[in-house]
């Protein structure tokens, strides 16, 4: 068999071409895999970087919520809020104390002028000028001069209630309690005759003319009933009449005597003497 040089060369060339094509294909496949691998690394790097950035942001947010000194911002804000409320409470309390102090100063100044000049001769201008305040300031506390008198009446009832509570807290007979209570009341009233005359004439202690005094007056009468009730239990006071009526009789006697004394400035008898006789009259009529 003879070898054909031409055909042999062509075959060799084809073989070389086939071999080259195979090598090229292999290189292409390898490069493709490498590129995919590289893209995967890049993708992982990007996703990893994103995750790192996300974790960093979270950490920053957490660290930013910590105030200097290691306290959480929310806790610090709550603490500062509490301090704010405390400061507001202090300011509010100071403001209320100032108002109460000025109210007391108005009352004391008005009473001093009432005693010195008389109620009718004392003007609101006199009160505000003495205190160096304006009329609008006065009217923020009291709508009128009579309102100051009603405050005097309310305080008088409060003092009476305290005195009756004191009488109930000590061991004594009903006669001793009533005599002591009304004698003290008469002495206090007699010392400030011009003032109490104004209080009575203005109805500043009359719960009918001044309804805001009903509670204070009722509290005083209730304590008087307690004293009379104990007297009934001890056999010192008659049980023929209800306690409510007996307390009304005693209060009615005292109020009538004081009103008469207040307008009768030339009367021969002192208030204390009139009050003493009124208590004696009641005790004699209330004996069993």
Question: Can you summarize this structure?
Answer:
This protein is mainly alpha-helical and 288 residues long.
Assign the CATH architecture of the domain at 145-286.
Answer: Orthogonal Bundle
Beta-sheet strand percentage? under 5%
What order do the SSEs take from the amino end to the carboxyl end, as H and E? HEEHHHHHHHHH
Tell me the total number of β-strands.
2
Tally of separate helices: 10
Radius of gyration, CA atoms, in whole angstroms: 50 Å
| Major beta-sheet overview | 2 strands, antiparallel
- The shape is globular
**Oligomeric category:** single chain
Uncertain parts:
1-49, 63-70
Notes on the protein architecture:
There is one protein chain. The protein has 288 residues and is mainly alpha-helical. Among the domains are: 89-143, Arc Repressor Mutant, subunit A (Orthogonal Bundle); 145-286, Tetracycline Repressor, domain 2. The chain has helices at residues 5-64, 73-117, 124-131, 135-141, 145-169, 174-191, 193-201, 214-233, 243-263, 271-286; strands at 66-67, 71-72. A hairpin with a 3-residue loop joins strand 1 (66-67) and strand 2. Helix 8 packs across helix 9 (243-263). The protein is globular.
